[in-house]
Design brief:
The chain is an alpha+beta fold and 124 residues long. 35% of the residues lie in helices and 35% in strands. The strands form 2 sheets. A 3-stranded antiparallel sheet has the order 1-6-5. The chain binds coenzyme A.
Length: 124
């Protein structure tokens, strides 16, 4: 078995995602799990508020970053879930299980980003 360090990153224009949501609200359920939507609203926000939109954008970036890290560019959006832990830190779940991949999120200045890192175990 060989170990391989993998990384993925992604940057999202918050206004662009937000405009897409305003055009078609069904995007939210298609891309984000109920838990991700609740995490984005923590602090008693609604999904219409700017901070919640920034958080959704960061979670979108995390899903794209996982696709890059795993080399699976068609991974379904709901296969990756970003769960916010009690500390506020994000934790990645993959296909309903905690993932060995770790992620970090940030949003500022109209942009949201995610970085994903992990070690994959390849069997020859
Ligand atoms: C956590 C912290 C580093 C976030 O930095 P920031 O510049 O405010 O915000 P960023 O946009 O860079 O990062 C936000 C992301 O950090 C992540 N984050 C929050 N708490 C975290 C923690 N304990 N560990 C790792 N990541 C964390 C979240 O993913 C968050 O994104 P989300 O809101 O979409 O879930 C910062 O708030 C901090 O240092 N907090 C500790 C002190 C504190 O609570 N201060 C506030 C009261 S004075």
């Amino acid at each position: 078995m060989t170990e391989r360090l993998v990384t993925g990153c992604d940057l999202v224009d918050v206004a662009r995602l937000s405009a897409a949501i305003d055009r078609r609200a069904s995007i939210v359920d298609r891309v984000f799990t109920q838990r991700e939507q609740a995490d984005a609203c923590r602090g008693e926000l609604t999904l219409a508020e700017p901070v919640a939109r920034q958080r959704l954008a960061a979670r979108f970036a995390a899903k794209e970053a996982v696709r890059k890290a795993l080399g699976d560019l068609r991974l379904p959006f709901h296969a990756v879930e970003v769960r916010t832990e009690a500390t506020g830190a994000p934790r990645l779940w993959l296909d309903g299980r905690p993932s060995a991949l770790t992620c970090s999120l940030s949003h500022d200045g109209g942009l949201a980003m995610a970085v994903v890192v992990g070690v994959l175990h390849d069997t020859p």
